[in-house]
Amino acid sequence: MIISEAIKLRINELLEFNCMLQINVDSLTGKYGSKAKKIAKWLLKNNLVQFVGTDTHHYEHSKHLEKAYAKLKKLVGEKKFKELTYYNPKNVLENKTVEGNLDYFRKERSW
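The structure assignment produced for this chain is given below.
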């Protein structure tokens, strides 16, 4: 998967400020376009995401979530799925540490 240098640079800037990253699960279904889908998958595959959420505000919007969460689970596995959707958000609410690969770019700048 090829991600542009500009996007990598922007992500690196966020990580330099110790920001944690979240993606919208709908990105994995292509709801926001192929570019968002590609970036979301790349972030997940490189363990750069600490949270996966949704912007579902109405019951009608929730009908597609099963498909989206199935894609996420297939991509990252059951353990990581629970971490991204349950344990990390719970840890934030309880003021506990959230695990993540926050120095990915600091260690590996192959671009």
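Interim note for the steering committee: The longest helix spans residues 78-93. DSSP finds five helices and two strands in the chain.
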